[in-house]
Amino acid sequence: MSKQNPLLEAFKQTNYQVAGNGKRNVQVLKDAFAEVDGEFESDMYGKGKVIEEFQTKIAEFLGKETAVFFPSGTMAQQIALRIWCDEKGLKKVAYHPLCHLEIHEEDGLKELHHIEPVLLADKNRVIELKDVVDLDQEIACLLLELPQREIGGVLPDYDTLVSISSYCREKGIKLDLDGARLFEILPYYQKTAAEVCALFDSVYVSFYKGIGGIAGAILVGDKDFIEKSKVWKRRHGGDLISLYPYIVSSDYYFDRRIPKMEQYYEEAKELAAFYNQCDSVQTKPLVPVSNMFHVHFDVAKGALEPILIEIYKETSVGLTGYLQETDENSCSYEVSIGDQYEKVPKEKLAKVFELLREKVSKK
Question: What is the pLDDT of residues 78-126, one digit of tens each?
Fold first, then answer.
């Protein structure tokens, strides 16, 4: 077993893992292409049947006029904000302090587009209408991330979204949705994707998170917006000669997993309840609002790792392959439910949490 990361190695050796859609290996691509005709033509620089039909399919699903496929969501999001800033002649946008653009993109929005972000709301909660109304400076665009991943995948209530959308339209502020996990929140809101997207001027969705494709994203909006995004896609180097491996896998897993989002949501609530029965353990949110949540332990990372490794060896069920230290006496990790959860025998899952309660209570 690796001395560098014994928890990860123990996790990999389990027969069952409670989270995710399975290993990200070449089989994911092989399965997607299993029934694809070898003579099927690829796309070429953003044109061709395979890319155009998928773009149309997703635009219709999201209730928008048109769409463009991108190799990454990072590229799509930055381009969306750039277009809205150019349209207004104001290079200033607002988003949450823990927005992906702010903490995971090496200041790409600032360095590549010279756009100034305004950080809105306290980092430990979602953006509310009052935060938007109380803005003391003009912005071209407001970005909302649904769910707010870095604080456990929490969501504002739907009426708040409607109010923010109405206010932005009244004030001439464009509203952009970071919908990397849009499909996963629809069961909680009990809304269609089109109903949610109707509140926004532009929307980005991902195909490798809950959908489980290889990579790729789609940006949707009106025709003028999407035509401008295609120009910026070329400028960003996103017009690869062919993107069909991403598109075919996205389409394949989209069809198979969209109908399962309600199941993933119910399973996430079930799993969170198991965690919350343990002393010194709590999920955030307490009751999940999507297929994802964070698990927080009032146990030091160094003390919890050997406990989990013991449980993995005894049950062959893996909970996580990593722990993130929050302070010297606590740690956490993220859970996203997918196809794997239903494969775990219920008696084994019960045993895992029986052991977890027993071992954590002794710490």
Answer: 999 999 999 999 999 999 999 999 999 999 999 999 999 999 999 999 9
Omega before residue 117 within 30° of 0, cis: no
The fold for domain 43-241 equals: Aspartate Aminotransferase; domain 2 (3.40.640)
Peptide bond into 97 cis (omega under 30): no
Output the pTM of the full model.
Answer: 0.96
Give the Cα separation of 251 and 32 in Å (integer). 9
Q: What is the pLDDT of residues 34-75, one digit of tens each?
A: 999 999 999 999 999 999 999 999 999 999 999 999 999 999
Q: What is the pLDDT of residue 1?
A: 44
The span from the CA of 165 to the CA of 257, in Å, is 29
Beta-strand relationship, 116-119 and 92-95: parallel
Q: What is the DSSP letter of 48?
A: S
- Domain boundaries, given as residue ranges, for the chain: 6-23+260-361, 43-241
pLDDT of residue 2: 46
Six-digit token pair at 178? 């970071």
Architecture of the domain defined by 6-23+260-361: Alpha-Beta Complex (3.90)
Give Cα 227 to chain centroid, integer Å.
26
Low-confidence ranges of the chain (pLDDT < 70): 1-3, 363
Q: Is 212 left (phi over 0), alpha (psi -120 to 50) or beta?
A: left
Name which of 353, 336, 356 is nearest 22 in CA terms: 336
Question: Sign (positive/negative) of CA torsion 346, 351, 354, 360?
Answer: negative
Question: How is 283-321 classified by DSSP, letter by letter?
Answer: EESSS-SSSEEEEEESS-HHHHHHHHHHHHHHH-EES-S
Query: Residue 362 has what pLDDT?
Result: 76
Q: Where are the alpha helices (DSSP H) in 108-180?
A: 108-113, 129-133, 158-171
Burial of 217 (0-12, 13-18, 19+ CB in 10 A): buried
Q: Does residue 16 sit in helix, strand or coil?
A: strand
